[in-house]
Design a protein that fits this description.
Length: 338
């Protein structure tokens, strides 16, 4: 039986009214919560203990209201500039290895961020992802405490990185995206903001701890990885990812070198030299025209210890001291591995 035009119109009117109410709530929220200088935008706002730009706060409300998760969903969560691009490629290639040959792989023609959606940039009406086969893959930079309860019951892969490297990588990235009509963001200003916890999705330490503590309580649901660990033992991590996502490698696949082929396909050297990642543009969410980012911006160095070029000994010690104070008694040790 077809839906009557009047019923459809009524439903659409209600949806519009609900969304308009969400927008009103968002506008009121932005007017009432603390704000500080942003890295890319003029201001970041403190929303439930974390610093976000207004657009991301609105999308968090949208995700809570409209996104329908499935129990089989798998999420990649990370603080910005912690290695998300690399893990996206590894997770997608591992989970979907039966769909592509290595000679004509999806990643040879598309940037890693095209592999699965970043929920943070969706807008109303949120995309209907029901056409995606289970298990569906999603990415987010939201801390665990800002995720809807149904998402926190799904499997989550969390990627952590040494904070000094995060700072430098994030500073470079935001400087490239910062509007030309805004004054340049100096490293000194970015450093002070970062140490104060004020950066997109920050504070860094509270973000990491929100997933670390949950991983201790439920290791079957949250796989906590370190970027440095992936760099040092990528084949081991890929096998761990496969098992966690419910698709472990068979003995035959291991013998044929499938793990090593995935690691090579997704390596920084390989991906950064592909034409699509040199000249392509990644578009995020429903506001793609406003959020287009050149793929090459996601491939700077991919190294550990790059902070040594930029931070003074005093700056390094200050961040190390904050890290020690924030993580003490948590059981989490962020080892630079170099």
């Amino acid at each position: 039986m077809s839906t009557s035009p009047s019923l459809t119109t009524t439903q659409e009117s209600k949806e519009d009214a609900d969304y308009n109410k969400l927008c009103e709530d968002h506008n009121h929220l932005i007017e009432t919560i603390p704000k500080r200088n942003g890295w890319k935008e003029q201001h970041l706002y403190n929303y439930n203990g974390f610093w976000l730009n207004p657009h991301i706060i609105k999308n968090n409300l949208v995700v809570h209201t409209y996104f329908k998760s499935q129990s089989t969903d798998i999420f990649l969560a990370s603080f910005m500039k912690s290695g998300t691009t690399w893990l996206k490629a590894l997770m997608f290639s591992t989970l979907n290895r039966h769909l592509y040959s290595f000679s004509d792989h999806f990643l040879l023609h598309h940037g890693p961020h095209s592999t699965f959606p970043l929920l943070d940039f969706e807008t109303h009406p949120i995309t209907d992802f029901t056409q995606l086969p289970a298990p569906r893959l999603f990415a987010t930079h939201f801390p665990r405490t800002l995720l809807p309860p149904l998402i926190t019951s799904c499997k989550i892969v969390y990627l952590c990185r040494e904070p000094k490297d995060v700072l430098i990588s994030k500073w470079h990235f935001m400087c490239k995206l910062r509007p030309k009509d805004m004054p340049p963001l100096s490293l000194e200003e970015a450093f002070e903001l970062f140490c104060a916890g004020i950066s997109d999705y920050g504070p860094f330490w509270e973000h990491v701890l929100s997933y670390w503590r949950a991983s201790l309580e439920n290791p079957e649901k949250i796989l906590f990885l370190k970027y440095e660990e992936v760099k040092k033992q990528p084949e081991v991590v890929v096998r761990k990812l496969a098992a966690f996502m419910g698709k472990p490698f068979t003995a035959e696949e291991v013998e044929k070198g499938v793990v090593e082929k995935i690691v090579e396909l997704c390596s920084f050297g390989n991906l950064s030299n592909l034409e699509v990642n040199k000249n392509g543009v990644e578009k995020f969410g429903k506001v793609a025209a406003e959020l287009g980012v050149d793929n090459r911006q996601f491939f700077r160095k991919g190294e550990t210890g790059d902070w040594k070029i930029y931070l003074s000994e005093e700056m390094s010690q200050r961040i190390d001291g904050i890290t020690h104070d924030k993580l003490k008694d948590s059981g989490l040790i962020i080892d630079p591995w170099y």
